[in-house]
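thread: overnight batch results

M.L. [08:02]
morning all. the overnight job finished for the chain we discussed friday. pasting input first so we're all looking at the same thing
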Amino acid sequence: MSNIRILYVEDEPFLARVVKESLESRKFEVCLVGDGAQVIQKFCEFKPHVCVLDVMLPNRDGFEIAIEIRKTDPALPLIFLTAKTQVDDVLKGFESGGNDYLRKPFSIEELIVRIKNLIGMRAGAGFESPVEDIRKLGSYTFYPQNYILKRGESIKKLSHRENLILQFLSEDIRHPVKRRDILLKVWGDDSFYNSRNLDVYITRIREYFSADSSVRIETIKGVGYQFYVEE
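M.L. [08:03]
and the structure it wrote out:
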């Protein structure tokens, strides 16, 4: 994992210094930013492989920053750091484009594991699609490489996790997909909290296909999900 560039955004000086030095001691290249208003400029200059964003920042919060970063790079791994414990706050992070989160205090080892997991997914671990991969799903066309779901003139830009989940579900529609397999591929673990997040994403993806009744994602109790396209 040498030469991996991390944009680390944290306004608490002591924590920022400890984390930065710890990452650099493990051969990561780290750009530290402490002011939310400066992040996008540093992002453009530094061109990171992954961003680690504190939620509460001066001048601009992590959610706003993530939304703007996503406009430039829809697939860049984003990890939120938060002291908040409410589910709604963390879900807001995912909805604004985050791929993962860590609650403070956290261990450097855990942060590194999550960084490696996300970098690995982007590099193609598991089930990233080849460039020519275009999937016809009823009246929809799914372009995994471009994070796009299209129906007629309507184009839906998918988030990173939505794209990964839909790739996994539509890989082979003849067979069900185990719920645990999705959790391990997309989140890296099958904790109760991530399981709840998966429920949210499945509901959202189902809504994206609501205009075509021949397309559905069925829940198979005790197993997982199966993607159906009726002939």
